[in-house]
Amino acid sequence: MNGAFEIGAVALDAQQRALNVLANNVANMNTPAFRRQDTQFAAVMAQTSMSAMSEAGQATEASPAAGGVRFAARPTLDVPGEVRQTGSALDVAIDGSGFIELMAPHGRSLLWRGGTLVVNEDGMLASANGYPLADAIRVPDDASKLKIASDGQITATGSDGRSLQLGQLTLLRTQGAIEQLDDGLYRAGEGSRVIEVMPGEDGAGQIRQGFLEASNVDLTREMVDMLMIQRAYSANAQVISAADQLASITNSLKR
């Protein structure tokens, strides 16, 4: 009887986690370059009763094996969002599968699919959350009319009207697992390989100035998934309710 309660509890917990992931997808549907996460039950291990053998070769008391659901949520990086024109010179998107590298505190490397650029207090081009580009592109105080070409060349117009070469924006391609962080940032997973390429090479994509990549969240799909999760949650709650009724009947039996 206890097995029914345990199975129902494990299933309810798994469905609750799946609902949390879905809610996060919906909450970020307007976040530029956000990648929706898919829920995945990576492994289902049935709980069975195994007899432990003594040194004499005889079966002793039963020993339960580990059981439960291994839950995983992974971002759908292979599904790009729609690239939408904004007209702002500081908005950049990647028309391809590459990433822009950002430098976080303590020398950490972060991956970014693009968004709104800013010039930080040090005069460096950075993401909106303040992380400078790893390519270390400095914008002079008197510069104007910032231009980012599709091949990553960044130029501006100086106070004397001359064109200034500010630097080259490169992209990164990843081979292996990628971990999704907050604020539209990513990090290469353990054992992943990161390759630096020029925009337009090896499928990394080209830079598009004045555009932003929308999230790849489809609200209709999320609503359908929510209904399925709710039905599964309800079914597992019924398992616990049925087990409780049977336990109540058993306890009320008279000898």
From TrEMBL:
PROSITE patterns: FLAGELLA_BB_ROD. Its main location: other. Keywords: Bacterial flagellum, Cell projection, Cilium, Flagellum. Signal peptide: none annotated. It is found in: Bacterial flagellum basal body. Residues 7-34 form the Flagellar basal body rod protein N-terminal domain. InterPro entries: Flag_bb_rod_N (IPR001444), Flagellar_basal_body_rod_CS (IPR019776), Flagellar_FlgE/F/G (IPR020013), Flg_bb/hook_C_dom (IPR010930), FlgE/F/G-like (IPR037925), LlgE_F_G-like_D1 (IPR053967). SUPFAM superfamilies: Flagellar hook protein flgE. Residues 208-253 form the Flagellar basal-body/hook protein C-terminal domain. Residues 93-156 form the Flagellar hook protein FlgE/F/G-like D1 domain. It holds the Pfam family Flg_bb_rod. Belongs to the flagella basal body rod proteins family. This is Flagellar hook basal-body protein. The lineage of its organism: Bacteria, Pseudomonadati, Pseudomonadota, Alphaproteobacteria, Sphingomonadales.
